[in-house]
Amino acid sequence: MLAVIVNVALLPAAIDGMRLRHSALQDGPGDYSADLSLLRRAVHAARMEEALQQQQHAVRRAAGSNRRPLITGCYSECGWQDQACVTQCQVCVESHHCKSVMGKKCRRCRLQALKTKHLRKKADSMMFDSGGIASKHDHVRMQLFGAKLEALDAERQLRRARGEVLKAQRQAEWSMEESSDVAARLHEARRVLERKERDLRDTKVSNAKALKQLRHQLSEQRSELKKVEARLVKAADRAKFVRQKLRYSRNRARWQRIWPGVRDAHHKLEAQAKYRKSHVKRLKDDLHKRESKARFMERTLTRENSKTRQLVDEDNSRLHAAHAMERLLREQLEKAKDAYRKAAVKSQKREATAAALRRDLNKHPLPTRAELVKEYKLNVTTEST
After folding, report:
1. Which one of 47, 101, 328, 349 is most buried, by most CB atoms within 10 A?
2. How far apart are CA 373 and CA 62, in angstroms?
């Protein structure tokens, strides 16, 4: 019985049943259960393989019997703009289970498609199919929808361009204000520099005059001092001579009468010489102080003039940079204005296109029920005749 089961079940899997039976009878009772489980797994695998082969064979048969022709020649003949004919042909093929569109059943459809093609060439730019007025209305409506979207996009671009113009205008105005502020600072700095230079010239002139006057006074006092010193030398010599005569001369009474006048003249000349020396020294000190003060003032004013001139140079550089920035921003403003003009023209054109399509849509309204019934009756009458 086991040999019969093995021979029947394992025949599709190409298993030799007689050999398995002979090996199973020769083995002991312990190995018989293991061989039985192996046989069961082999039987299950063979059945699964047979079921899979049957399923694939059924799929191939179904695909061969129900295969439909793929409508591709219509696209190359009529294009992709009007797909109503292609769709109608594909629906007809699927519903009638046609294996080819070149048979007798499709002859009427081919003649109708050829007639429709010739009518489409004579028709206007509207979408032409069996929908008629409704298709025209839908076509215009879709064009109007696209035109509205384009007009909205143009309006957004116009708004963006207007924002760019306003931004460039603000930047240009800011640049003009900056240029005017820098020019005002430069004018003020130049005025301050001129005033400081004038102060420096006036200070140099006044110091030169004061020093010249002090030097002249010093020169006069020195000449007076030299004269007084010369007279003092003579008076000292005379006083020395009178003292000698007073000491060694026999006529002392005569020299005693002369001595007070000579002594007083000598003392007076000594006092004058002392005063002149102190006055000359004071004049020297004043001249030295005046020279030091003049040098300090001139050095200070020169340093201030250098700083002011440096500020003037910096402001001049800032003014050139501000003018360059102003020219650049003006160019950007002109470019933004040109872009705004182009965007305005584009927006107007798109709005005009949308308005024309809206008028065209009003010219092609959807047909009413009565019109559709009338058109249907007319088509039926035409086909019957």
Report:
1. 101
2. 43
